[in-house]
Amino acid sequence: MSDWPHQRLPAPDPKTYNACQQEIHDAIANGPRGGVRGPLAVWLHRPELAARAQELGRYCRYDTVLDPKLSELAILVAGRVFGSEYEWQIHKGFALKVGLSAKIIEAIRLNEQPTFSDPAEEAVHDVARAALETRTVNDALYARAVGILGEAALVDLVGVLGYYTLISLTINVFQIPPLGNNPAPELQDD
Fold it and tell me: What is the rounded (10 degree) CA torsion for 111, 112, 117, 121?
């Protein structure tokens, strides 16, 4: 028996989709995500929200000026700050695939300060933690982030953090369980 609560609002039954739900479902399923799961499936209760949120999500995942490793780092920080195990499980594999160190990922999972050799990774991590925990960044961190990442990347980073805040809140409020109803296991550095 799982310690995780039951999902409060399951995805709508595809047999009961109205035309708008079907259209949005198909657009998401046929896009780069390849399927409609987790928060996106819950959003189909409000297909207009699903349509707009998935477009923002597509931009945040695939079209920002951020290197994919930096995007995945920010997403993992958001997932950890919000305690969203589903999000963590989905993006841990993506982060490893794009080259984020397993040691950094594990430190984030444990809510520890990772050791960074890449100043851009450190800036993304520090901005993400500050923004999500304190709802702002101080002047010194802002100046460091702009100096390392540039203004365009910092704007995109804030967008990524905003989108994954929406994702994480959806996961938490509707109690979307982790895959297999298990929390993220400890990582091995292959």
Answer: 20
For 23-51, the pLDDT digits (tens) are 988 888 887 777 788 898 999 999 999 98
> d(Cα 36, Cα 22) in Å, to the nearest integer?
11
| Token pair belonging to 174 | 């509707």
Q: What is the DSSP string of 25-68?
A: HHHHHTSTT-S--HHHHHHTTSHHHHHHHHHHHHHHHHTSSS-H
Rounded-to-integer distance, Cα 160 and Cα 64, Å: 9
Cα separation of 22 and 116, whole Å? 44
- Cα–Cα distance list, 134 to 93, 126, 140, 164, 185 (Å): 28, 11, 15, 16, 28
Residue matched to tokens 């310690």:
3
pTM for this prediction: 0.88
Smallest Cα–Cα separation from 87: which of 100, 74, 98? 74
